[in-house]
Amino acid sequence: MLPECRAGSPVCTWSLASLSRLESRDLNDRQTCTGDRKAEDYMWSRANQLFCWASPLLPCCWCQVSRFCPPRKSCYDWIGPPDKCSNLRPVHFYIPENESPLEQKLRELRQETQEWNQQFWANQNLTFRKEKEEFIHSRLKAKGLGLRAESGQKATLNAEEMADFYKEFLSKNFQKHMYYNRDWYKRNFAITYFMGKVALEKIWNKLRLKQKKTIN
Amino acid sequence: MAASPHTLSSRLLTGWVGGCVWYLERRAMQESPHKFMHLFRNINKQWITFQHFNFLKRMYVTQLNRSLNQQVKPKPEPVTSPFLEKISSGQAKAEVHELRPISPPSLPLSRKANEKELIELESASVIEASIDVGNATKEEKQWKEMKLHVDDLPGILARLSKIKLTALVVSTTSAGFALAPGPFDWPCFLLTLLGTGLASCAANSINQFFEVPFDSNMNRTKNRPLVRGQISPLLAVSFATCCALPGVALLTWGVNPLTGALGVFNIFLYTCCYTPLKRISIANTWVGAVVGAIPPVMGWTAATGCLDAGAFLLGGILYSWQFPHFNALSWGLREDYSRGGYCMMSVTHPALCRRVALRHCLALIGLSTAAPILDVTTWTFPVISLPINLYISYLGFRFYRDADRKSSRKLFFCSLWHLPLFLLLMLTCKQPPGGGSDKGEPQS
Asked: What is the pLDDT of residues A5-17, one digit of tens each?
């Protein structure tokens, strides 16, 4: 009855696990569902809520899933504002009533890629920010300057002084980027390929349906 | 998932965070199930939509009205996400540490929180969360349905194909065609422009298709259609194919096979060489310069049908121009390139970056002198183009010497008007037909 959970998705597995014990009765109580939402969608939204309730306790923004739930009439994916850490826009995937195995595979691949991307870029941007701060502090210290300028504003280095840091950071992360690039290209191609297959499957099904209707 | 929820939780939420949350879960289930159940049941009955902010708002307000056991707890220190504001390096260290995945931790079962603390924690997070209602609503408004509206499609496709850049590319092609000797053939000219335009659209779309997460992280490119989810990757690739095939076909059969081959080669060079190379080596700049040089060559070959000295001269001019243009631009983007993992000269070899820009500014003077030698233009051309060539070389020298943002911006903006003016001057000084007339030979 529960949707297939994605390993590595904090919302899904933790919250659903707790919900399953709380509300196993409620699943059958259609009156608690709004409109024509499926039980799985209901569970997903509630999982989101439970998770977000606890999320202020969680310090890492990687775990903070958006509290957004799309309107029940919508049959499309929804895309959100850029994440504060990773700058990537999260997508809330729509699960159709009669999702085929291929569509499910595509959705799961996209979900997993989204999480993988989110983790990489959040980590990358955080590391960058942290190391940049450390670099600025060490340079200011070497210069004998404090962290604050006389005006009270935070002291910074100019672009030329920062250039050493940019160069060092880039070369330090080169290998990491090589692996990421390779994986990203693979995933991107796979997603697009499956999107194509799903589109063809839909067209084929529509044609078959039309054929059946004309025969009948 | 058949595995027990506890093992799942511990696998997923690492470190003490996972332990804390897991512990809360256990306590919530075991020690105050009634309270939770009560809350949830009440929420269900008030529910109209699944909007999270409604849930929190109603729970907070309605429960007070119903005089449930919602004690007004003193508001705790706001648990703000540290990543929403600038963080100190110390905190950052702690956060980064948390982000690193570690093997299944030993859960700190010894953490004893008594029930009162647990309730305080819940209500603290509820109060905190309800205060966040305003933010949640604002954030929710920024969520967009990923439904493609046909009305928006032209705008989206224009941005996907980088229509402004395509227009510049097409104009350099037209300059190449116009500068080529021989009678001006309007149908051929229009077919060349159309074919080159379509090829450029295709190449730009594929480039954006490859670069979605990188574009998201750079200010210059974060509003592109694929980044914003306005179009799916499948549609982007389909659009690119629908541009590339007719474009190349038009060039091959409507113009000549040489131009078609150059078109295919340029698409390949841009999408399969330049785009991936941007993240591997600084050689991408030289490859990119060749990509920029090919369109005027295509214009020339469309008009003449062969790759002669004039074609190479034009290609050389565009090739040289790319360096002051791009190197100056990249100077101001070093932080974004470094963070995004782009290998650019401005980051890895700053001195080389400025040297190359200056070198190619001076090369433009040399190439404009070669133009009359190769019978592309008259000798007037190097003379009248000298002022603008000297000016860009001067700015290139300033950039080389000063190496600051001001000089890089000046050089970049100069390159934007320098090229169209340069090509215009070239056109006005085009060698008239029957070339060599300025050498004083008698005309037959």
From this structure: 343 344 433 334 4
Report how far apart, in Å, the C-alpha atoms of B283 and of each of A175, B69, B301, B314, B320 are.
Answer: 17, 68, 27, 22, 15
Find chain B residues with C-beta within 8 A of A137's C-beta: 89
Query: With an 8 Å Cβ cutoff, is A49 touching chain B?
Result: yes
pTM listed for this prediction? 0.69
Q: Is the ipTM of this complex over 0.95?
A: no
The two tokens of residue A11 are: 């919302």
Query: Which residues in chain B come in under a pLDDT of 70?
Result: 1-136, 435-444
- Tell me, rounded to whole angstroms, the distance of Cα A103 from its chain centroid: 18
How far is C-alpha B369 from the geometric centre of its chain's CA atoms? 37
Say if B403 is an interface residue toward chain A (CB within 8 Å).
yes
Any CB–CB contact under 8 A between A127 and chain B? yes
pLDDT at B79: 41
Question: Is the CB of B142 less than 8 angstroms away from the CB of A80?
Answer: yes
What digits encode the pLDDT tens for the residues A102-141? 999 999 999 999 999 999 999 999 999 999 999 999 988 8
Provide the mean pLDDT of chain A.
Answer: 74
* Chain B stretch 32-61, residues whose beta carbon is closer than 8 A to a beta carbon of chain A: 33, 36-37, 40, 44, 47-53, 55
Q: Which ranges constitute the DSSP H helices of chain A?
A: 10, 16-23, 39-54, 101-143, 159-172, 174-215
Amino acid at A58: L
Give the whole-angstrom CA distance, residue B289 versus residue B365.
Answer: 18
